Amino acid sequence: MAKTTIMFGIVLILLGIVGFVSSPLHAPTALIPCAFGILLAIFGALALTEDPKKRMLNMHIAVTIGLLGFLGTAKSIYDYIQMLRGVQFPHPIAVEEKAAMSVVLLVFVIFCVRSFINARRARA
Fold first, then answer.
1. Hey, where are the domains in the chain?
2. Residue 42: which region, alpha, beta or left (left: phi > 0; alpha: psi -120 to 50)?
3. CB 8 within 8 A of CB 108
């Protein structure tokens, strides 16, 4: 799961860079997915250890970061659906980027929870 965490971190970093470059204002807030991606990549790399306690701790920190990121951007999924229905937003690129970040983090959290459940079952 550590390598998967690093992969999701890289996806978020790329999302932030693409959002920043495609934004006409080059707003620094477009780089927020990069911050979450860097954190996920760091804790994913730290989880590549043989020590099961350290691996478990780092993966729990990573999923907590993912969950907080999802909760902070979850409303943007609704905003994106509204945008598809014709509602105008002042910064549509920001809505798209936040919705993409939200979906990526939701998938990451689901993968982590499934992995945690499988690990617990394997121990029992």
1. 2-123
2. alpha
3. yes
User: Cα–Cα distance between 40 and 50 in angstroms, integer?
Assistant: 19
| pTM given for the model | 0.89
Q: Burial letters for 74-91: b for 16+ Cβ neighbours within 10 Å, e otherwise?
A: eebbebbeebeeeeeeee
The distance from CA 14 to its chain's CA centroid, rounded to whole angstroms, is 11
Tell me if 37 sits within 8 A of 15, measured CB to CB.
Answer: yes
- Provide the residue type at 64 as one letter: T
**Crossing angle for the helix pair 32-46 and 52-73, to the nearest 10 degrees:** 170
User: Tens digit of pLDDT per residue, the chain (124 long)?
Assistant: 889 999 999 999 999 999 999 888 888 888 999 999 999 999 999 999 999 899 999 999 999 999 999 999 999 999 999 999 989 998 888 899 999 999 999 999 999 999 989 988 888 7
